[in-house]
């Protein structure tokens, strides 16, 4: 059986639209994201809130701006959203998966969910391709999600591990933020500009082509293969500002057929608030 790709095309989603197990989720973010969803979203999509459904926000100094929720709380959230183990979950946002679409994908993969994909091109591209649009609120009937696991199943590291990695020539820390934030020229969100010592900059935008679609798996494999050739997977860590956009690059790596490396969820938002 052919392995399911983590990216799904608009025409493929249209073909699935009558599948009773299909569950579509809109994970756009921003202060007006819910009201924008209510005005316009893909037909049958349900809104997911990054701050309350995909994170447990506390003090950014301890875990960053979007720390993961407790595993058991996320499992309850999946049931509340109407997802069970048989659900074919398709996720989109309004930033080509770079907003919170890829974060939700990573979290579902990390609880062992098999059937989850991110929509290539997101909301805008689907609308341009004449995917049916709806308005108003929408919900799926609640379920009970049963996971085979008790904790996250994808690799993560924490701030002390990152500190050690900054001094380890066999490790690489990858910062996926745009180059101006990495260089410390601008910092629109966090308190301090700059980057983690010895981090390399691979902006997430390099995963996309000029149309805002993911580059082909072959192109992405070539883009990242040198990085993966040089370092052991356990020594590769991806991060961003708050552990959300980094998942876009992890998604790209999975799409390319490469192993998913470490995620540092606290990212720059945690690192920059600690005197290290």
Automatic annotation (TrEMBL):
Keyword Cell inner membrane annotated: no
Matching PROSITE patterns: RHODANESE_3
Protein name per the record: Sulfurtransferase
InterPro entries named in the record: Rhodanese-like_dom (IPR001763), Rhodanese-like_dom_sf (IPR036873), TST/MPST-like (IPR045078)
Pfam families per record: Rhodanese
GO molecular function, one term: thiosulfate-cyanide sulfurtransferase activity
Domain Rhodanese, chain residue ranges per copy: 18-135, 167-276
Presence of keyword Repeat: yes
Signal peptide feature range: none
Keywords attached to this entry: Repeat, Transferase
Domain of life: Bacteria
CDD domains: TST_Repeat_1 (cd01448), TST_Repeat_2 (cd01449)
PANTHER family cross-referenced by the UniProt entry: SULFURTRANSFERASE (PTHR11364:SF27), THIOSULFATE SULFERTANSFERASE (PTHR11364)
Alphabetized SUPFAM superfamilies for the sequence: Rhodanese/Cell cycle control phosphatase
């Amino acid at each position: 059986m052919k392995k399911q790709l983590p990216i799904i095309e608009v025409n493929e989603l249209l073909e699935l639209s009558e599948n009773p197990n299909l569950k579509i989720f809109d994970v756009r973010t921003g202060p007006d994201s819910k009201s924008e969803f209510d005005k316009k979203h893909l037909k049958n999509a349900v809104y997911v809130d990054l701050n309350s459904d995909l994170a447990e926000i506390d003090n950014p100094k301890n875990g960053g701006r979007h720390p993961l929720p407790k595993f058991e709380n996320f499992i309850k959230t999946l049931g509340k959203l109407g997802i069970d183990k048989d659900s074919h979950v398709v996720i989109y946002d309004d930033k080509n998966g770079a907003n919170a679409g890829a974060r939700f994908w990573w979290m579902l993969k990390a609880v062992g969910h098999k059937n989850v994909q991110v929509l290539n091109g997101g909301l805008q591209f689907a609308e341009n391709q004449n995917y049916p649009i709806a308005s108003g609120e929408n919900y799926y009937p609640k379920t009970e999600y049963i996971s085979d696991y008790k904790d996250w199943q994808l690799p993560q590291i924490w701030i002390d591990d990152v500190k050690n990695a900054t001094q380890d020539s066999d490790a690489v820390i990858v910062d996926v933020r745009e180059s101006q934030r990495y260089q410390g020229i601008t910092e629109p969100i966090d308190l301090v500009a700059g980057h983690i010592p010895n981090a390399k900059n691979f902006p997430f935008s390099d995963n996309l082509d000029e149309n805002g679609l993911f580059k082909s798996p072959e192109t992405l494999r070539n883009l990242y293969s040198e990085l993966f050739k040089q370092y052991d997977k356990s020594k590769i860590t991806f991060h961003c500002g708050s552990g959300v956009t980094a998942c876009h690059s992890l998604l790209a790596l999975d799409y390319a057929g490469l192993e998913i490396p470490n995620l540092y969820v606290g990212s720059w938002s945690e690192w920059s608030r600690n005197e290290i």
